[in-house]
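Working notes for the structural subgroup meeting. M.R. asked for a predicted model of this chain before we commit to crystallization trials. I am recording the input and output together here so anyone reviewing the notebook later can reproduce the run.

Input as submitted:
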Amino acid sequence: MVVSRDKAPTAQETFMQMAQAAGLRGRLLVTIGLLILVRLGIFLPVPGVNRSAFTANISNSPLIGFLDFFSGGGIRTLGIFALGILPYINASIILQLMTAAIPSLEELQKNEGEAGRRKISQITRYVAVGWAVIQSTGIALWVANSGAAVSPGPVFVAETVLALSAGSMFVMWVSELITERGIGNGASLLIFLNIVAVLPRSLGNTIEYAQTGGRERVGQVIVLLVVFLVMIVGIVFVQEGTRRIPIISARRQVGRRLYRERTSYLPLRLNQGGVMPIIFASAVLILPYSLAQFTRNEFLIQVANYLSPGGPAPWLYVAFYLTLIVFFSYFYASLIVNPVDMAQNLKKMGASIPGIRPGKATSEYVERVLNRLTFLGAVFLGLVAIVPTAVESATGVRTFQGLGATSLLILVGVAIDTAKQIQTYVISQRYEGMVKQ
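Returned structure, recorded in token form:
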């Protein structure tokens, strides 16, 4: 098959490389095998739990559907992988916030290179262990107090904490293994898998809801599905949207050869953080529930109920959710793009933005553009979070509870990012083939 190195790989070329190229095929098999392993671990039950009593106890809880969104049904089954990747995500949030506040951590991230990043990753793992112990202790006490434990007591709590914490650490290790030796970001793919695993149940409930209510319910379901399809199209456009800032490289002479001015562009994504701001915002929303489980404090339990999608004050949940999305959008954009470093790199390369002086003026211009793009991206993320939820409330279709806008954005965003990584490997295989020829 003849291909051009200047063109993006076609679907035919991508599938052929996935089947024939040993490196890409191996990465895909590793990713699929590890995802299946994690999924099977959800169905390995924690010992000492009365399943029927536990199921009856959680059947009317408005928070279980929201928590199952991250665990892929692990909370309902109470498997050893019930916590999943959630402690690691919470630890990443804590470390990123601490990095912006503590100068020593900021020095590690910015100036220590790969060694500094490895050190921060190690600290994140330690924090994840502590957070997994806290969450698993809360779950163990909750199960023991609900009467679902066969023999409640310190031994049951210790066994449950050990099983859930060990399972969460194994899932964290698998996510890092996928990132290193597989395709895509391991943590994002695990969340993607959990969402996809819950989809058949939600679709089945939706079909049953439409069949039992006549034409009116069918129309409500159709309206909701149309809104979801429109949101998917919008997500794809925004995820791929970039602002191209023109750059002119200075004329230079190397030996006897004179290089003319070259014009290129600096791409700034509309949504710099991708799916991470909405993942972090969702994880923060679960924090009050986790703390309420651990402390059994009535005030925290009320706060957790009010900050859940099915709680007594949906507007409070929406407002808090929007605030978190905007905050993490700006926070993540500041971590990814540094206008000062960008201006210095352009100056070193002898490049500049037309009409903008090099140095401080360039960094201020890039920062203004980045702030506007981040605001637009945050507004879009907020719309994605609100519109489907509002349509669910208007139509009365509650079968997608916990699987609304957040999961929709994560599904599309992770699929796009993973597809791009696969295309990158295909292009690298293409160049290797050209070199061998």
